[in-house]
Design goal:
Length: 187
């Protein structure tokens, strides 16, 4: 179920399915880089203004699914206009800044994005552009990212399946007049 917070800016209602904290795992595979499974935590928040604040942290996972080390992190802002056009700005820890443009699909919670501009520090790895697809499927957030470099044509390099993290304090607050059967621990 998608909840729309009462203090969400009205322009952002079509993006409400993104709100919250998400965790899960995925696969990273790109020529010249480490092929690995990774864990991910993503957060989409709002403060009443007409954009969502976005953070993503990924880390390499070992064979047993334990964190080994950070993989990459990014932060950014998501906006949508009345014609369902989505604009995203991101900054990655490796020294890359991206402007993404795309749109929210008609009748389904799916967003297709493509880079409109890329800037990178001299120390950042080669990168010339990318595509991303985000979808809300059966209450989960899934995404796939493609990227291109001067040597490698556009190809998939990361994808993940994320589940929404629910704080028990949030749902326990809605429970009223129940006997003290342990639920009081969450109040």
């Amino acid at each position: 179920m998608i909840e729309i917070p009462s203090d969400l800016h009205p322009d952002l209602v079509p993006l409400a399915f993104l709100l919250g904290r998400w965790t899960g795992a995925g696969v990273h595979d790109f020529p010249g880089a480490e092929k690995c499974n990774f864990g991910q935590e993503v957060s989409f928040t709002h403060d009443g203004r007409p954009f969502l604040e976005y953070t993503s942290h990924t880390w390499v996972l070992d064979e047993e699914g334990r964190k080994v080390r950070p993989l990459e992190s990014e932060t950014g802002y998501w906006r949508i206009d009345a014609e369902r056009k989505v604009d995203v700005t991101t900054t990655r820890d490796e020294g890359v800044v991206e402007i993404w443009t795309g749109e929210l699909a008609e009748g389904k919670p799916q967003i297709d994005l493509v880079t409109d501009a890329v800037a990178r520090l001299p120390v950042a790895p080669e990168y010339s552009g990318g595509k991303r697809l985000y979808g809300y499927v059966n209450s989960d957030l899934m995404w796939v990212g493609e990227k291109a470099t001067p040597e490698v044509p556009l190809r998939a390099y990361m994808s993940a399946h994320l589940k929404k993290v629910v704080d028990p304090k949030e749902w326990a607050a809605d429970l009223k007049d129940l006997p003290d059967d342990g639920i009081a621990f969450f109040k």
